[in-house]
């Protein structure tokens, strides 16, 4: 991954979320209730608006999540506090086309159904509101999390399936048409201990809070945890979730995981952005024999690579603990600042990654292809 450019001059406060559409436009949301729409070709702001918060017209609530419609890319959903606003970006965006006020506490993430028919909004209460985008009304409320629900993702192929993760250390898969849980996994039951080291690592010291969940195009579910690990989950049966792979490369909490096709990207509080190899296979040996990108990567080399590109605050024992999972690393980018949001975007033969951190600037990186080393 290489830095291509930076978008500046749009925001005056920390950018919290980003999303892109097929019109080569980028939307960014920041603290103090500001949304910018960018022309990606020019890197310039097209519109700058302040969506009204749910409680008052001059709200200074944060814009916590954004997403473009998949079938009508000019439609933009903006989450501000407990409200969701729908804008038509072809207009001056002076006022929203619709406003949804179904969440009772601050919204953490918006997610759109692959067919664009439903919008999910998870919030601090632990509830997930499912909105019918055609009827523009509440369809269902999902209640199971006992703490903040931080992330939600629709299954790409199963039309009524959805996954969620939260700060209660729980991951749920849902039949959202019935409001029923298919399967659940407590990340507290996972084994994070490094048997080769007597020194506790970040994997064992930090709680396995779930910050992010994401489905791949093939239906694999990845989750990023506060203890710096990432897990690719395996559904042996519809009501049984197991861990298929564990990825170790971050030294602090994983703020986001997201797929670009079947390529997995992760961002962390350590300022790292990591591109992972995620081919199918039942073991590391199978992966190495079938994938030339990992055939020459052994545990020592992977540990050394991860350590050399770290921010410098990891110790030797942490590097050893990362070795087993870091053999899946394709590339590590040391972005530097703690990452708030990443948005991969693919157009023609170009793959880009938009990154929001603790500043008011958007960084734009080029992403290497699957065949690159």
Task: Say how many strands there are.
Answer: 28
- The secondary-structure class comes to mainly beta
The unreliable regions are 53-57, 195-200, 281-324
From the N-terminal CA to the C-terminal CA, the straight-line distance is 11 Å
Overall shape: it is globular
What characterizes the major β-sheet? 4 strands, antiparallel
The helix fraction, in percent, is under 10%
Estimated radius of gyration: 20 Å
Mean pLDDT: 84
Question: What is the strand arrangement across the widest sheet?
Answer: 1-28-27-26
The oligomerization state is single chain
Q: Total number of helical segments?
A: 4
Question: Can you tag this structure with a few keywords?
Answer:
373 residues; four-stranded antiparallel beta sheet; mainly beta; 4 helices
Summarize the structure.
This protein has 373 residues and is mainly β. The chain contains four helices and 28 strands.
What do these coordinates show?
- The protein has 373 residues and is mainly beta.
- Helix content is 9%, strand content 46%.
- It is built from 4 helices and 28 strands.
- Strands 1-28-27-26 form a 4-stranded antiparallel sheet, with no helix packed on it. Strands 2-3-4-5 form a 4-stranded antiparallel sheet, with no helix packed on it. A 4-stranded antiparallel sheet has the order 6-7-8-9, with no helix packed on it.
- β26 (341-347) and β27 (350-356) form a beta hairpin.
- α3 packs across α4 (316-326).
- The termini are close together.
- Mean pLDDT is 84; it is low at 53-57, 195-200 and 281-324.
């Amino acid at each position: 991954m290489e830095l291509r450019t930076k978008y500046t001059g749009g925001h005056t406060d920390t950018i919290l979320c980003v999303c892109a559409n097929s019109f080569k436009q980028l939307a960014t949301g920041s603290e103090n209730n500001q949304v910018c729409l960018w022309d990606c070709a020019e890197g310039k702001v097209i519109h700058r608006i302040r969506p009204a918060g749910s409680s008052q017209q001059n709200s200074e609530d944060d814009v916590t999540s954004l997403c473009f419609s998949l079938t009508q890319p000019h439609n933009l959903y903006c989450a501000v506090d407990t409200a969701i606003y729908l804008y038509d970006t072809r207009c001056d965006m002076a006022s929203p086309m619709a406003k949804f006020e179904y969440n009772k506490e601050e919204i953490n993430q918006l997610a759109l159904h692959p067919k664009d028919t439903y919008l999910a909004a998870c919030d601090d209460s632990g509830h997930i509101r499912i909105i019918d985008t055609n009827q523009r009304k509440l369809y269902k409320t999902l209640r199971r999390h006992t703490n903040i629900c931080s992330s939600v993702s629709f299954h790409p192929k199963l039309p009524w399936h959805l996954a969620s993760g939260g700060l209660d250390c729980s991951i749920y898969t849902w039949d959202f048409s019935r409001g029923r849980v298919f399967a659940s996994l407590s990340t507290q039951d996972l084994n994070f201990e490094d048997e080769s080291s007597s020194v506790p690592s970040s994997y064992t010291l930090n709680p396995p809070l779930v910050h992010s969940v994401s489905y791949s195009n093939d239906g694999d579910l990845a989750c990023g945890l506060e203890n710096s690990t990432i897990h690719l989950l395996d559904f042996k049966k519809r009501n049984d979730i197991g861990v298929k792979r564990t990825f170790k490369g971050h030294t602090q909490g994983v703020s986001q995981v997201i797929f670009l096709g079947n390529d997995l990207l992760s961002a962390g509080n350590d300022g790292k952005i990591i591109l992972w190899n995620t081919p199918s296979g039942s073991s590391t040996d199978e992966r190495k024999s079938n994938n030339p990108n990992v055939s020459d990567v052994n545990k020592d080399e992977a540990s050394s690579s991860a350590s050399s590109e770290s921010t410098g605050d990891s110790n030797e024992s942490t590097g050893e603990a990362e070795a087993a999972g870091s053999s899946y690393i394709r590339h590590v980018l040391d972005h530097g600042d703690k990452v708030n949001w990443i948005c991969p975007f693919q157009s023609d033969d170009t793959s880009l990654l938009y990154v929001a951190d603790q500043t008011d600037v958007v960084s734009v990186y080029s992403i290497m292809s699957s065949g690159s080393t």
